[in-house]
Fold these 2 entries.
Entry 1:
Amino acid sequence: MSRGETYVFAAYLALFAVVLGWLVIHAFKIARLSRELTELVELARRRDGKAPAPDAAEARVAGQ
Amino acid sequence: MSGYLGDVAALARTSLLLELRQRDTVPAMVLFVVSALVVFRFSLPADASDLAALGLLWIAIVFTAILALTRAFVAERDQRVLDGLVLATADRSAIWLGKVAGVLAFLVLAELVALPAFALFFAPIGWETVAAVALANVGIAAVGTLLAAMAAASRARELLLPLLFLPLVIPVVVGGVGASVEPDPGRYLAFLGLYDLIFAILAWASFDYVVAE
Amino acid sequence: MRNNLGPALAVGALLVLGTGLVLALFWAPEDADQGFSQRIFYVHVPIALTAYACFGWGAWKALRLLWTREARYDLESYTAIHMGTIFGVLVLVTGSIWAKVSWGIWWSWSERQLVLFLVLFLFYSAYFMLRYSTDPGPRRANMSAVYALFGVVLIPVSFLAIRLAENFIHPVVFTRDGPQMAGSMFFVFCVCLAGMLLLAAALYQAELAGKRLDARVRELREALA
């Protein structure tokens, strides 16, 4: 690969790296939000006095 | 209208009277700018041109201004006086204008020493430099006062002001150095005037939002 | 419609930018002077224009905040400026790479676009410092909005300053061919520009949705606690 080609690909790769980096950060964010929501669902169920039933919700999602 | 100007005059008078009594900001600015010029003298190589030295003059002015601006809202914050001022004045931009007048006065006083000192240590300065300094003072005071109010509201205070201020003051430095150095100073002086006009209006119009809750 | 905007933008970005980049790398004609390295132009300039668009969008949302005092505009303004800063850093990176391959140096003070973005990068970095060092609330929102407005005004003023400064900062000027582009080059440029804008919009939407979800989860936690 000529010198020019190397630099061009480096520039395009920089763009790609930024977008992927953003994706990584957001993947962690989504994971954290999922965890927090699970916690809060637990909290809500306990407040209502019902027994925690995490499998029921997952079964509903899986069944679709 | 006299209410507005009355507020402005009162605020400007307060800043100046406070300074007259405490006598801390202006002497510090004067000492700082002279010390800075001496440090610059040691940092320039022997064969450096007068033009390079003029660039350093502008750096000295900018950082001296930061000293003055850091103090602009300190007294108010310490004594929660700013909250009272905000409630008392009908148009908060009067606070800004009053503070700007105070900062301008301090800058001029410091420059009355700085410019002759520069002429003594480095090279004589022409009318274009003086004109550029005068125009730059307006822009620096206008933008700096607004940013000082922002910095005063944050937790970082004195740390934040230079960070906010320096990018915005780059055009002023360009205009000032250009007017001092270039054979045709008119363009640069006009640019400084343009900067002053645009940013003074913007700062005047938006100060209300910066101090309000 | 609101919920479909994010995915729609993402799909649009994928299709348009994907096409644009393929065209830029393989279909666009080779530049007579610069050769293959000229193709960096197809990412560098669209990214720069997209950054300006983000800062402008952020300033518009800031204006809306000051006008209506609705809190949601603060988040939207902040996210737009965040996007603009990310793209701004990309401008500096791609511009640097282009400078290196064109002139053998990583930085040139005679490249006006690069210098402008350096100044803007400093300015908007200070924006984040301002936000991080102030307690959340209407005061922070207002100050951020005012600062964002100062930013868009600074863009043309700085550009003018940089042009004026060229006389005494750097006498040696490196030049590149201006926009005398062949029609096909211009077409590829436009596709890449559209794609880049769609990418920014998609990232903006996704980031905004993420921040709003964050806020609502926090609200839920407070309601349950």
Note: Chain C touches chain B through 33 residues (CB under 8 Å).
Entry 2:
Amino acid sequence: MSERPPQTEPEIVELVRSIDVRAPEELHRRIDALIAERSGQDPVKRRRAAALRLGFAGALALGVIAVALIVGLSGSGGSPLSLHTAVALTLRPATMAAPALDPHNQMELAANVDGVAFPYWDDRFGWRSTGARADDVGGHTVRTVFYARGHDQWIGYAIVAGAAPSVSGGVVRERDGTRYRFLSEHGARVVTWLRDGHLCVVAGHHVSDATLMALASWHSSEMLDS
Amino acid sequence: MRPLDPQSLSKHVDRLYRAAWALCGSREDAEDLVQETFARVLSRPRTLRGDDELYYLMRVLRNTFLTGLRTASRRPVTAAAIEDVVAADPKPTSRPEQAYEVQEIYATIAGLPENFRLALVAVDVLGLSYKEAARALRVREATLTTRLFRARKQVAERLTPNDRQSPRIQREDKDSTGVLSSEGTP
């Protein structure tokens, strides 16, 4: 770009402003997907956006999620909720602000499903809540809270209202009498288990099973090492 | 006042990426920062008060960047497992010699004190006016002007040949003796 290093203020300005590096295509795709999700709030737009996304070969993972949601969300209401769909919800963007810390319980957020509260992990694990969403799938209300740690780790924590759908597959590990099932869906690592009869799903990319177990098995009455 | 149109944001990705790269000093961190910035902006409907989107994005980028710094400083540093590392796009530019210079220039900017860095990124990398940049960074315009002048001066000093050689001299000396013996000749 320049034969000798810039030494004056105008030269520095010219040099910095001359840089025209383009963002990586993968980043463009991810941002486009975020924008499409935000723009497609009504079902027709959502399906159209999903169909458009399917046209991009590189966005295969997103296409899989969109198809799952169309199947899960656009039926006549009778489609049963599957773990596959629940996981897809944890990977979608937030549509609501992050719930605040519960003023009456410093270990929980002020958000719950039938009394099953979402945990507050910031002080203990460094995972802060960043947003939330609520969906109705097959007669079930699914609330999801999203958490992030740093700039590169994201997870979604979904709690399904009502009777828990059956779940199979994966690897089951038991801790303190609770069975935690680990598996992969949509390219994300997933742990699922029951809290007071409610199906809970935590899924994310770049998160180890050990971290998922530590997060899932921690609750207000115990303090585990992360 | 007008609602923010999400569709209008995609044209700013490249500029925001360059700004994030100059703030973070690394392409990988820049990608994460840009994605998190857009996720925040798009998490709910937004209203702009007569300002354009770029000004608003810069404000969110700044807040996201500073929040990330503070969060990171509170956490113990842990090494990422190899399977957790996702390689950044290996071809950010079609010109390898430019890629080297860009990395060097942005790394130099990222090495500036935080306030200087933000001022230079807002005006010279992102292209905001002094007035917009001052508002986005929540400082007075006179303060921004001063920071910008000093930031450019420091970048010029750090990009001069002697300064550019200093880190290599230091590394070589440390490798051979274990002790830093020279800061480089002026």
Note: The two ends of chain B are 54 Å apart (CA to CA).
